[in-house]
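Archive transcription. Copying these from loose printouts into the bound notebook so they stop getting lost. Printout 1 of 2:
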Amino acid sequence: MANSLYLIATPIGNRDDITLRALKTLFSADILLCEDTRKTRRLLNYYQEQHYLSILINRYEIPKLVSFHEYNEERQIPQVCQWLKEGLTLGVVTNAGTPTISDPGFKLVRECVNQNIPVIPIPGPSAAISALSASGLPTDKFLFLGFLPKKMGKRQQVLEEIKQANLTCTVVIYESPFRALKTLTLIKEIYGDVEVVLARELTKLHEEITSQPISVWLKTLANKKLKGELVILFNTGGA
């Protein structure tokens, strides 16, 4: 649909985890707003080399790619809205997963909503939902925190506020491998020796989704270097 902003979910690891609708939208957009144009171009080149594009009718070339990330999002918004008002079709693509979910795009979406510009989600991969679905923890109620604040005091405040609210739910956190040990230590201080699931390298060759008491994790990771971003999950009710 012309004059619309599409939020296009892309694979979080395995490049074959792309939907037919996402492929059609990627290659029919006039402009793609990319968190990293180089990564997006490599992804699109891969799909060009496969037989996937046989589902498309007249469009096989890669659209115009424009850099759009957390450091230039606000500056780019006026130009993006102008393109949309001119009748162009734009898509937002992050390096992996669903745009705006711990990734750029929220401020643009808010502005489009304010200006009555259609925003259309193209659903697909999400590390949070993938990890939750395979965690073995309750999925009926969950709280997604994304990346916790970098400052330890604020991180502690977020977790303590949830504890004080007496919520019983599964908490889902994104974490860097460099801060994982500190975050697990903090969770143990606030929630005790709860069962924690760590999901790493989701959909990739070395995918790991493992559950064990947090005390075991602290011993396991004390002298181990992790690679790749993690999803940390635990249930506030101890499940």
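Printout 2 of 2:
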Amino acid sequence: MLRVFGCVVRRDVLLAMRRRVDVFTALAFFVLVVTLFPLGVGADPKLLRTIAPGVVWVAALLASMLTLPRLFAGDHADGSLDQMLLSASPVGVIVAGKLVAHWLISGLPLVALSPLLALQFDLAGDALVALVLSLAAGTPILTLIGAIGAALTLGLRAGGLLLALLVLPLYVPVLVLGAGTVGAAAAGLDTSGYYMLFAAMLIAAAVLAPWAISAAVRWASE
């Protein structure tokens, strides 16, 4: 199973590197949204530090959503997904590999760029560390939740709109928790409770999401 998992991750990462425009579009959206806010609200350091957690987290959430419709669509269109489902490998392992590859392509770059972009908001010290750690813990949860919506809307007309309607309400707790973590760190408060909640949400999503996605993908392929 580990070999199958590794092959799926490697395959999806290589395919994404051949379609760099899709990857760079989401990154460019993230950078532009975060950069435009300081230009629009002015240069007041206190105001920028106040809005920074929400702005960066909302931009990361929307950027991650841009890549969700393509998570299974390409394999579904060319028949690769049907071949995977017919193989002897467990569907949950294949789905887990695709999710890890998706996060490496779309989530990890957002985490890597966030410290540089946060400097525009005069964030530093504990708040900057909290922003990076919260995104590192939160973006995998966004991927897991979003993948359920992507599987449920696979092959449907106007699937992108329906995907947003399904996923956005489920993203709200992650958004609130992420912005709250950075805000607490900026205020000098203890953030250990926030990270425990992130860990609990990530474990629950990692355990439940692959099986829900597997069932939805099988249903969409029938």
